[in-house]
Amino acid sequence: MAIEQVTLPTPAQAALPAPLAFISQMTMRQKLAGMAAAALAIAVLTGLWLWSRTPDYQVLFSNLNEKDGGAIIAALQQQNVPYRYSEGGAAILVPSGQVHDVRLKLASQGLPRGGLVGFELMEAQKLGLSQFAEHINYQRALEGELARSIQSLSAVDGARVHLAIPKQTGFLRDEQKPTASVLVNLRGGRLLEASQVAGIVHLVASSVPELLPSAVSILDQNGKLLSQNKDGRRDAGLDPTQLKYVEEMEQGYIKRIEQILTPITGPGNHRAQVTAAVDFDQAEQTAETYAPNPPDKAAIRSQQSQEQTTREAGATGVPGALSNQPPAPATAPLTTPAAPGTPTAANQPAPLNASKNATVNYEVDKTVRHVKTAVGTVKRLSVAVVVNHKTEKLPDGKVKTTPLSEAEIKQITDLVREAMGFNKERGDTLNVTSSPFRAADPETLSEAPFWKSPEFISLAKDIFKYALFAGVALYLLFGVIKPLVRQMAARKEEQDALRDVTPGGDDAVVSLSGPGAALALPSFEQKLAQAKELAKNDPKLVANVIKEWTHGGQG
Question: Could you report the per-residue pLDDT of 336-347, keeping only the tens digit for each?
């Protein structure tokens, strides 16, 4: 039977509250062990709690230059925002819940600037600055503003602009035009299209006076010249906008056909395809036509007439005074007979010569026609329409399909002709047929396992944190503290059971332990005999008990 030294409580200790009395009964070694166990448990629980409450850090900005990085760190320290550096210091990390708020606050302060200075450089001009320095500052500011504008493109990560603006001179013969060079750093896997390169060229050329687009050079981070890359399709006369226009036109015809057939066949029971031949040629024609003037519709532009008559009267009749008389006044021969010897029209001499000229200018029938053909006119349409068979559900539950009749196909053909604007002279073609549709096989998309989703991973991390915290807490409670308390409670029961068998009162000490030790001596004589036997067999243990008595239980 194992024997262990046990100290019985004194009357002063028995008067204390139960927890304090229980602690006062412990030896110094037991107290130190309990304090160490409690401190360890508190430290572990506190560490786990702080670790579970540690925020998840995300990237605030990356690939910053030293100037912007220092300005951002200073701003974060002023705002009392915790931050960290990624491995290698390539990025600044902040708690994930504050990323967007911090970015907006830094953006209000103009951070990050990207190492570029714009027109804010002109705000701090020093007094007495020379004209050359002012020109340099203006050029730097203009370069910075252009670089910022180019960096706003989604495919551009960084940009630098170099302007060569010559000094103005009064001699036109020696005048030089400005030039510009742009270096763009593209994002990974991104490329600049020809239209985007042209946009950058015109942006720079429009920002600098007298800068021609042909004097702007654009390079990428690999040193490849982008500004002089010619588009082979444009050089061959192909324009992507034309292809897009044809596609939109065809989709418009298809939409009109489907809208008119859906109420008849039902949704999903017809398909239509349209091929449009579009003429993008630009032609201008000027014609002048001259037609003969009809006699009844002749238009006189100008007319000139000239008439000249000359008459010479010779000597007639018998020579003498009567024949040389002037002609008598005209008289009516029916009423008044002519006097004898009076000259008449019959005996008057005829005119010797007469002249008559007439000039008539008619308007010329001229037609001038200037014709400019429209761009994007439809030359020909080819339409194909397929309609599904009619379905009928039989009484036994089966589905029966029947093709459309000739009358139904003719009805659909007439409707499609009107919807597409069929023009036989233009060469349009239309083909409508009825055919059963084959049911498409259901597509089985391979979904990613739910445990790989970001939401599940984040939830699993949180659950792991709290589960680990709870596991450690339960282990400390049931694996360390509870056995210690149970052991101390057993010691107290043993002390209470052995108090009566101690031959010296409340301060006496007896060393007994093992299963059933408290009930081993039912009577005082048996217990006393057992104590004598113990002193005989193990005097060292008895000496230790006496030592405990002399030190008051503090040894």
Answer: 555 555 555 555
